[in-house]
Amino acid sequence: MTAELATSPGTVEIGRSHRRVLAKQVVLRLCSGLGVLWGAVTLSFLGVRLAPGDTVDVLLGEQPRTPEVAAAIRAEWGLDSPAVVQYGRYLWNVAHGDFGRSYVLQRPVSEVLGAQAAPTLALTGGALLVALVFAVVVATTTARRPRARALANAVELTLVSTPAFWLGIVLLSVFSFGLKLFPVAANKGLSALVLPALALGLSLGAVVSQVLRDGLERALEEPFAVTVRSWSIRDSELRVRHGLRHAALPAVTLTGWLVGGLLGGAVIIEEVFGRPGLGRVTVEAVLAQDLPVVLAVAILSAFVYVVISTVVDLLYPLLDPRLRRGGEQ
Fold this sequence. Notes:
The protein has helices at 2-6, 9-50, 55-60, 67-77, 83-95, 109-142, 146-161, 164-178, 191-219, 223-229, 235-272, 278-287, 291-319; strands spanning 101-102, 107-108. It is mainly α. The chain has a domain at 117-325: MetI-like fold, CATH 1.10.3720. It has a two-stranded antiparallel sheet. A hairpin with a 4-residue loop joins β1 and β2 (107-108). α6 (109-142) runs parallel beside α13. The protein starts with a helix and ends in a 10-residue tail after the last helix. The model is unreliable at 1-7 (pLDDT under 50).
């Protein structure tokens, strides 16, 4: 009887309907993400076109202008062509990873970013891992435990109120200069990533843990929790295996919004710890008025944000099965 129900036409049709809803959600979200990227690229193009002064001088930055260099820039950017043609050419080049040339560094912008992207991605990825581990551990161990919650609130408030660069300096003073457990400034191996990731990720983890703990406390009061407790399972298993899934949606949403802050914080943390990365490149490009590099970093930041927000949106149906039927009548 169970096998018949599992393979009945009605059950199969429901499964197909769920898959169609999920496929529709994925397509809509991808189209939305492409729209955001198109907007970012368009704004960067307009930033070059609408900047005061000659476009050649804007792209040159602080570099001296010569007739040969000016002619090369006009040919590369198609400045003698109509604006529509320039715009289409710019879109085509960006879609193929060509962000032009940095006339300050005398290198293609894609080469400049490619050489520095890996350290920044490693730092933000490590910081995100620190934030998630901190949030899950603190939330699951302190939910519905008044004394532990009070202590956790104090720690979280301290971390949220502490600037990342100051926390980084404290970590360097204690664990690098004092205990000599980690290198002071390097980019080799996991040991060089630990302190920067902690400095950047702990404040994010403190914010997420507060939201996750509130959601977990509400989940542990739901009827399903009473049913699960009647199975005589351990309290830790109830929290981790059953409660977290019901409490995760607000925390996942918040994490997706705050990940963009990790990229901004990486600029300061890379300076504090003497690490290479996009943060240092961005600061140097702004100071040197290297507009092609600045615009490329802005587009790359928009791309990262779109990827993260898309992943977050696609996680919703996996965390809450009710959302898989959102498009059904």
